[in-house]
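Researcher: Sequence recovery benchmark, item below. Answer with residues only.
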């Protein structure tokens, strides 16, 4: 259980760091929004894959992945709204 949570935390932090480093070099707001959308979709895919393919997850790990998917979907919707508004 602890190893899976630590791996998931590393994935979360890598996605966050990639966003901040890439957004520091991107001056165009629309590209920044597309970057946010792409990372949200990547995070959704990773969480969904963990739910589907990892069979030995506990109930609390499943709930954590479902919450992560819900938050990433909210982030993706926010990015879509920002892209269409720009």
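Model:
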């Amino acid at each position: 259980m602890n190893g899976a949570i630590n791996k998931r935390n590393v994935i979360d932090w890598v996605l966050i760091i990639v966003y901040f480093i890439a957004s520091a070099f991107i001056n165009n707001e629309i590209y920044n929004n597309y970057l946010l959308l792409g990372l949200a979709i990547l995070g959704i895919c990773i969480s969904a894959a963990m739910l589907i393919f990892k069979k030995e997850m506990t109930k609390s790990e499943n709930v954590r992945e479902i919450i992560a998917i819900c938050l990433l979907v909210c982030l993706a919707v926010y990015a879509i709204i920002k892209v269409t508004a720009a």
